[in-house]
Amino acid sequence: MATTADFKNGLTIEFNDQLFQIVQFQHVKPGKGPAFVRTKLKNLKTGRVIENTFTAGVKINTVRIERRPYQYLYQDEAGFNFMHAETFEQISISPDFIENADLMKEGQIVEINFHADTETPLTAELPPFVELVVTSTIAGEKGNTASSNALKPATLETGAEIMVPMFINEGDILKVDTRDRSYSERIRK
To answer: pTM of the entire structure?
Structure first.
């Protein structure tokens, strides 16, 4: 058990019989009336973010979450298959648990969050940036690159499609931000 004084970003709580992670919180002490805490909570099952207000001092059930490194092996009809980096234990996870799963390539290390009491996987988080090869894109036209914000679609080695600057060509290695699927930079060979 914890109270609203124990709130911090990333804390996982049990709320309305579901697991939520605190994305953002703010303690508010109005001039009139009791203090309260305004929060944004992310549902770990659906990924939906909701807003909720808690009265200051109210008791909340916290949930212990463990982060474990797993290596992505392959995908089959059961989902995505991972192997624990130290124990070599293999698990299969549904695509619903992984945000931007199409940016994941074989051999990549992924952090999987487990509910410590029930040993069930909750979410899988890709590293903030991944390096992927461009497999196909249209050629940039001369004169079209004068504007620094000109973008074109590119398909990456994992099959993911992102928007890239006009100077990117097939075979280039890109650094891609997995949080918003954006192009970050071109890696020199």
So the answer is: 0.73
